[in-house]
Amino acid sequence: MDQPGNPPSTEPKTATVPPPPEEPASGWRPPEKNPTTIIAIVAIAVVAILAILYAWRLPPFAGLAEKTDNAYVRGRVTIISPQVSGYVTSVPVQDFAEVHAGQILATIDDRIYRARVEQARANVAAQEAALANSTQAQRSREVATASQDAGIANAQAQLVRAEADMRRAQALVADGSISTREYDQTRAALLAAQASVRQAVAGRAIGTQDVRTVVVGRLGLEAAVEGAKAALRLAQVDLDNTVIRAPVDGQLSEIGVRNGAYATAGTQLMFLVPHDVWIVANFKEAQTADMRIGQVATFKVDALGGTRLRGHIENISPAAGSEFAVIKPDNATGNFVKVAQRIAVRIRVDPGQEASRRLRPGMSVEVKVRTYGNGR
User: Regarding beta strands 364-370 and 65-75, do their DSSP bridges make them parallel or antiparallel, or are they unpaired?
Assistant: First the structure.
């Protein structure tokens, strides 16, 4: 109805129509995540990132531990060789046998060496007899010297008598009591007595020199006796070396000699491997920056099926491996390429590990040294 005072409306009247309802959007929508699920996903992502950083030794895991697979088990492998030559008469051990120090490993025909010992012993007896003869000769010379002393005394007594006769003859010839001929005879007797004294003294000096000659000669004979005894000891050493014994406890390698074989001095008969072993790991030089003696090291041996063992750094090489090479690397052409050097690290195997008894020199090892926290 029109209100009074307003002109009548000429627009047609339309009815009000409500808008149609909205249709839901087409496609899949993921369900809403609860906070627990979101935290778990974030935690897994963080763990994965940390694992990648640890595997690639990136911060913050850089320098926590150093690894290398250039490592081997080492031991004191001893070459068993004879010191004398001869035919092998017995080999009382077998391949890979456990032996103890002093145990007989092989024997060599000792007939020649026994004969040499007897020959050397006879030579010692001959030299000792010559020395005893020298002692007797010295005593004989000393007795002769005593006889010469008596001869000097007799000559001096004759000289005293001749001098007295000469004094009387001088007094008698002056008054004509004796003839000139008798005086000359007395004077000749005096001169002969004087000559006898000089001759006796000279003979005594010769006797003294004879004694000294014997004494000096005895020094040479004493040296000859000592030389003969040394030759006897040397022959005895050769005889003892015909029996080859184990120097230490350990395990033998494969036996390389049999009965009847001729072995020369230095021939490799077998190897003896003591049970004392250690690890030598060759790290790159940059890996040793934080390594110290006493740090903990773990290693895994291929031959033990991945069994992990424990040890400690015992020592670090004083120089890179290239410094111990016979031919030193030298690049003087100008096209230098830097190559990381290797530093050998010796690792002591901790005692009390059952699996360590199965370690053998030469086995390949993967070593990991913990360098963080001082590595202890």
Answer: antiparallel
176 with 295, same domain: the answer is no
Q: What is the pLDDT of residue 244?
A: 94
pLDDT for position 155? 79
Torsion of CA 46, 48, 53, 57, to 10 degrees: 140
Which of 341, 343, 347 shows the shortest CA–CA distance to 375? Answer: 347
DSSP 8-state assignment for residue 310 = E
- Distance CA(220)–CA(133), nearest Å, equals 13
Among 241, 267, 273, 278, CA closest to 254:
273
pLDDT score recorded for residue 24? 53
How many whole angstroms separate alpha carbon 325 and alpha carbon 327?
5
Residue 375: what pLDDT? 47
Residues of the chain under the 70 pLDDT cut: 1-33, 54-63, 217, 329-336, 373-376
Q: What token pair was written down for 190?
A: 């005096």
Q: For the domain that residue 260 is a member of, what is the CATH number?
A: 2.40.50.100
**Can you give the pTM of this predicted structure?**
0.61
Domain total of the chain:
3
Range of the domain at 137: 111-240
